[in-house]
Amino acid sequence: MSVSGIIQHPEVLKLGESLPPGNPHGVSVHLPTWEDTLGWASRDRRVLDTMVTGYPRFFIPRVVERLAERILEHFAQALSESHGHEDIDTDVDLKGKHALILSTGHHALMCRRLFCQKLFPNSPKANFDILIAHWDGSITAVRENDNLPTRKKEMALGQEDIFLLPYPVEMFPTAKAFWQHTGFGISSRRASYWMESSPFLQLSPNGHRQTNYGNRPSPTPFDEDSNTQALGAIRTRLADCYSTPSLPVANDDVLLYPTGMSCIAAISSAIKSLDLPRLNGRRQPSVALFGFLYVDTLKLLSTLLGFDFKLFPFSTPLSPSPTTRSNPAQSSLSELLESGELQIDLLITEFPGNPLLQSPDLKKLWELSRRYGFALVVDDTVGGTGANVNVLGRCDAVVSSLTKMELKGSLEGKLDGGLAKLEGDVSKEEVQNERKEETDRSWFPSDIDTMNNNSRDFIHRVRHASSNANWLVQHLLRPHTSVQEVYYPRGSSTEAIYEQFRVKPTSTSTDHSLGQAEEGGYGFLVSIKFMTPAKARAFYDALDVAKGPSLGTNFTLCCAYTLLAHYRELEWAAEFGWWKIW
């Protein structure tokens, strides 16, 4: 059914099946009918119980849930057998609790703070213990006022400690939100490795937990040199992709993260931690979101990172005009900044935006950021991660989800000299080193290897998919009588801005395997607005392709985006033009 990531017979796919089919680490899940999509969005058990997997952050992988259960069972049994054993903290209540599994202690502390805020919003007191599970089966409990212990020895690659945050069942919505909005959870590959290889999780022939596993042979550890080489190859590939004669990108400028949202969190946290003069006298930093960004970006910045945020739709004028001067309610962004009514430390935008595929005027935003002293971060995921557009010269940082086009879950960030001007006493190198130390060991080796293998020809695949999308828009979708509007960079009201950043062929390009000698396309994502909701539903049900959340796969994928992303806030989303966007 699936050859080289291409789904040959989508009509035989079943509800809840992994996409690509048969892949336990798939990046999407099949929702074949409109009714199934509604069921997923409304948390209908009919749909949820059939799901083998799902979009990695929207759906906690089954193997991760099983691992959490097994570790809690192991710890509970150890408590009952401890009789005061010095390695076991017996004052930990696990009754009726589930647990999130996170890759780093820093992420576990962030999650605990969120739990405390939700359960005791007016009190600093809360009883949430962090459990550190070690490869050898020992578990360290970190109480609410304790610091994380220093690791006694360096673990073998792939066998690093994992961090559990037990929580009462009624707090599952909060736990799920943290998992979804941050991308800090462990990957399904890491969970599978622990389940299959960690000695204390293996069952004896009679089905009971192993108690004598000290002599059990350890699995062959991952090779450090191979892992380092794979990381280096990915960084080189991305650095070459974004480099231009006027703005070369070094490998050290590329920061890799296990998930897209974890990169946005890292870049935003780094900027938040800088000693910015503007923060004097203000309780919390402020971020502006220009355009309507991905739903998780909004909630990550406001709920989890504590930014005061302002949302500006694409229709917001950037410069003064007779209309803005005569109507204060329609003030331009530059007028708000000049008057001091708007004071921000960070502005984030997408190029182009998802799902309306509009392109913000980055040159003007960059000019405003230099004049008023805020950092400008651009998410170019929909633009093709440097393959179609290169925005690096007009921002402080580029973030891009490499889950797209089978790149399986990383983000690339480039910090250039512009950010260094905002850093006060913190240098660009210090920020980069801090981020690398946190992320390189938290990215599981098998995920890195998969990323490396799948990214070798990603530019060619991005451009091939972009060419297909362009043909569909021009020859099939825009002429169709059932379609009210097609959102796509080519032919849009902001096409001229997109063209300013579209990659042009260069005679100096030498790496033809990356496709650097070819021009960029207009993207592989198309959004359609139908004449009526009934026509949208009929189209979705009749379409013979894989259907589910995500974008940028090696196979054609369709989803009812507004339902999946904003089912519980459709009227609010409609204010930004998202009504009937499928």
From TrEMBL:
GO biological processes: transsulfuration
Gene Ontology MF: a single term: pyridoxal phosphate binding
Annotated InterPro entries: Cys/Met-Metab_PyrdxlP-dep_enz (IPR000277), PyrdxlP-dep_Trfase (IPR015424), PyrdxlP-dep_Trfase_major (IPR015421), PyrdxlP-dep_Trfase_small (IPR015422), Trans-sulfuration_enzymes (IPR051750)
Cofactor requirement: pyridoxal 5'-phosphate
Keyword Cytoplasm: no
The keyword Aminoacyl-tRNA synthetase is annotated on this UniProt entry: no
Keyword tags: Pyridoxal phosphate
Family as reported in the entry's similarity comment: Belongs to the trans-sulfuration enzymes family.
Protein name: WGS project CABT00000000 data, contig 2.27
